[in-house]
Specification:
The protein is built from two helices and ten strands; from the N terminus they run E-E-E-H-H-E-E-E-E-E-E-E. With about 140 residues, the chain is mainly beta. The chain has two domains: about 35 residues, Rubrerythrin, domain 2 (Single Sheet), CATH 2.20.28; about 100 residues, SOR catalytic domain (Immunoglobulin-like), CATH 2.60.40. The two termini are about 20 Å apart.
Length: about 140
């Protein structure tokens, strides 16, 4: 997999660095190639799958936007809920639809659980969720919608 990481915001670009980061707008030069980003994270904490791999639930009927085509994508980080403390937390959850970046949910340890919901306009295709743990790096899961 061809993966590039924005050195400013941590956004992952698949299949080449973009001309500018869709999250922080930094130019292409701020991306660094690292095809082993997920392997590196797993090596940091081999037993951590249970607390880091995103769990994705696809709900075909959108409860929030019933007047338009919408598929809810609910994300929970970890089969065992990931901790959210000042020292150990999920910093963001990114959503990619059909290999294109679609959105980011930023999290803080203050009052949020490591979870998010994305209201996707597509009714079929692939959803990829990438999350970042401040201690254990990047983790990913994919589902078909």
């Amino acid at each position: 997999m061809d993966i590039h990481i924005c050195k400013t915001c941590g956004h992952l670009a698949f299949n080449g660095a973009p001309d500018s980061c869709p999250v922080c707008k930094m130019p292409k030069e701020h991306f660094e190639k690292n095809d082993n980003v997920f392997v590196d994270s797993k090596a940091k904490s081999p037993e951590a799958d249970v607390k880091h791999v995103p769990s994705i639930k696809v709900v075909k009927t959108c409860g929030l936007i019933p007047e338009d085509t919408c598929t809810d994508v609910h994300v929970r980080i970890g089969e065992v809920l990931h901790p959210m403390t000042e020292g150990h937390l999920i910093t963001f959850i990114d959503c990619y639809v059909n290999d294109e970046f679609s959105g980011r949910v930023m999290l803080s340890a203050n009052s949020l659980n490591p979870a998010a919901a994305f209201h996707v306009k597509e009714t079929s295709g692939k959803v990829r969720i990438v999350e970042n743990c401040n201690l254990h790096g990047y983790w990913m899961a994919e589902v078909e919608i």
